[in-house]
Amino acid sequence: MMADCGAERERKVTIRNNHGENLVGILHNAASISLVIVCHGFQSSKERIPMVNLAAALGKDGFSAFRFDFAGNGESEGSFQYGNYYREAEDLRAVVQHFCEQKYAIKAIVGHSKGGNVVLLYASKYKDIHIVVNISGRFNLARGMEGRLGKKFIQRIKQDGYIDVKNKRGKIMYRVTEESLMDRLSTITHLACLLIPQDCRYSLLLHLITGIIENLAKSVASCLTVTTYHC
């Protein structure tokens, strides 16, 4: 069954991942089966302004776009985890498979921040999407952790089993378990990049600023006119 290109411009779509959790996203229907999947960053959601604006700008260039919440974020089911990089890549896999079944042509996967790492991990494992855009993904996932978790975080988490990360008002924002910390530390972006096929077009964008979203979308669109992946 071909994708219904005559449907409303935006509609909510729910997709079940391989853990039985419902992932919630918004499909921007540009009357085209050419689809770009947009992935949000750490402790974020599909409703963040850059994600919304990027999907909308891609629509102006004639590409449908899907922005969704990873498990444990936004409207999606599941619990938030500090690590979960490969599990989020599996969430992305569920999304890709869903739209393949709906006969969309997956043109690219785009990820911001943590989502940038996720799209790289996906490309290194599944090798079925030929355009990957990483926006501000962190190359070395061990860097910057002390600023977020505090000094001697390894010793503290091994002693207590977890660290509660608080905001300036002292409110707990999320809990980091030893398992999720080790998940992050064991995720090596460089190794993932080495496994990405040579025929995959890969773009690294260092900063995402709302004022340049449309130019970013045009840059992505210029890549998309070259390669299409048909499921």
From TrEMBL:
Residues covered by the Serine aminopeptidase S33 domain: 34-159
Organism of provenance: Glycine soja
Pfam families noted in UniProt: Hydrolase_4
Protein name, as recorded: Serine aminopeptidase S33 domain-containing protein
Domain of life of the source: Eukaryota
Signal peptide: none
